[in-house]
Amino acid sequence: MSNAFDFDPESPRAVRQAIRSGRFRGFTNGLVRGHVQGNLMIVPAAQADDFAAYCALNPQALPVLGRSEPGSPHIPALGADLDLRTDAGGYMVFRNGELSDTPREISGLWRDDLVAFVLGCSFSFEGVLQQHGVRLRHLDEGQVSAMYVTGLPTRPSGAFSGPLVVSMRALRAADAIRAISVSARYPQFHGAPVHLGQPGLIGIADLAQSYGGHGLTQLHADELPVFWACGATAQLAALQARLPLCITHYKAHMVVTDLPVQASRAIPLDKKEIPS
Amino acid sequence: MSNAFDFDPESPRAVRQAIRSGRFRGFTNGLVRGHVQGNLMIVPAAQADDFAAYCALNPQALPVLGRSEPGSPHIPALGADLDLRTDAGGYMVFRNGELSDTPREISGLWRDDLVAFVLGCSFSFEGVLQQHGVRLRHLDEGQVSAMYVTGLPTRPSGAFSGPLVVSMRALRAADAIRAISVSARYPQFHGAPVHLGQPGLIGIADLAQSYGGHGLTQLHADELPVFWACGATAQLAALQARLPLCITHYKAHMVVTDLPVQASRAIPLDKKEIPS
After folding, report:
1. Nearest CB to B269 within list A196, A198, A266
2. Which protein family is named in the record (chains A, B) (predicted)?
């Protein structure tokens, strides 16, 4: 147990309880490094199959880790006690394509026609990268990775379409190489990067202008920006679809699951791990 | 059989015969894409153990594929008919640290105290990269990859020391990412790159000034230079050691072996595939 918390920050169940009870309100990217964290996306059942198809068409950005039964806020395979109405620590509620609220929990909003999706998140491989000696300066500086809206289109499905959103990490070349080699093994956490180097080549005009306005955006002279596909792609697609209701996690407050990170690796050398 | 040759360019034995008989005099990088090619390094037996130790200390640059018995120009495990006195297609003879000759074969120079080493070469993964959709512009333009002497030191052993030599390929970002993911699986062909992006960070002042003066050195605006450790590192070390005699292959005229490239892959995710 770390001195900084009154709970075990490496236990998914303990972290979920701390979030649920309001004892922990921070970003989840420094916690439970050995277990998978995910993006949350809740849509009405009427849109759920279209959204699932959209994820399947864009698996690098939107790798589905779990999907609830209609009306259920639980996905038992991700955690027996997991309650998606309370355990994300922060939510964004979108109505007709507009952000309407950012509540701490959504028990009062739950409906029997809602379907929850949990999507892979690059937070899950950050611990693995560090284990392989990759310096993640944004973590050293207490930040999260910055996100950007690119000029790259996703493949549309039904009402869902929009640009690819990416996360960026500022890495020295040797660390970028290590990070690519390692992350390629984890397609369920976005796999290998989609780009590195010149941001303008993927439609990012200015690194200082990140999506949501947060994250580490300044590069040192010996660093390259390295860009991974990001689950926030789903938020933009839901906004563009102007769904009557859509609920997501609040930035960097992810769903903490019981899935071990290590059990998710071991992808053989084939096209699955190579970005298309 | 390709129309361009009077031998099967995908058969190691046929290529060796064509080289041995003088019917083929070109670079080997477009041939036998499915089989391993190697750097040749021949030293007197008195220096062989020091050189082997130097390779072991610098495995990313100098992965040993085979070593002959003292006095033998054969390494049967690399090809039953392989004769290292005639099959490289071109040789460089160094005496006391100076290039003294570049003969087509070295039968007359062979001595019963010489030991031959064959070291992995990045030519062997170029075909694999292309199979994974990586565009190698230098091949499209009929060139070889350029080599550079870096400011990075190798780990010395006995008389052997010197800078790391690298090969460079000009790649677009998405291809660089693919190339890193794939080459990391082939530590016996130099593994993942050692650097990408700014050449100055590894002591390369000017990409136009390549080692040996050959290879593709011009970058397009959307390309990054990607640098792999190179077996030519051994040549510089042998020069610096001022060996009384040292014989290597002539540039881009490699030893063609019977080892299948594909059988060499499948490295599990561990520190072996991550450059240190």
Report:
1. A266
2. Belongs to the D-glutamate cyclase family.
- B266 CB within 8 Å of a chain A CB: yes
Alpha-carbon gap, residue A122 to A114, rounded angstroms: 26
The distance of B178 to chain A (nearest Cα, Å) reads 6
**Rounded distance between C-alpha atoms, residue B239 and residue B165, angstroms:** 13
**Rg, Å, chain A Cα set:** 18
Give per-residue pLDDT as tens, B13-66: 999 999 999 999 888 887 888 899 999 999 999 999 999 999 999 999 999 999
Q: Where does B120-242 have alpha helices with state H?
A: 123-131, 137-140, 173-183, 233-241
A170/chain B closest Cα distance in angstroms: 13
Which residue of chain A has the CA closest to B174?
A: A195
Helix, coil or strand: residue B229: strand
What residue ranges define each of the domains in chain B, with the CATH number in brackets? 12-121+241-258 (3.40.1640.10), 123-233 (3.30.2040.10)
Question: Which residues in chain A are closer than 8 Å to B196, comparing Cβ atoms?
Answer: 173, 176-177, 196, 224
- Three-class DSSP category at A180: helix
**ipTM of the predicted assembly exceeds 0.95:** no
Best A128, A164, A177 member to test B by mutation, with max B CBs in 10 Å, is A177
Distance between A74 CA and the closest CA of chain B, angstroms? 33
pLDDT at residue B269, as a whole number: 40
Dihedral sign, CA of A53, A120, A69, A233? negative
Note the pLDDT tens digit of each residue in A49-101: 999 999 999 999 999 999 999 999 999 999 999 999 999 989 999 999 999 99
- Return the residue matching tokens 């792609």: A233
Task: Name the β-bridge partners of B169.
Answer: B226
B203 touches A at CB < 8 Å: no
Helix/strand/coil for A103: coil
How many Cα atoms occupy the beta-carbon half-sphere of B231 within 13 Å? 28
Q: Does A205 touch chain B if contact means CB atoms closer than 8 Å?
A: no
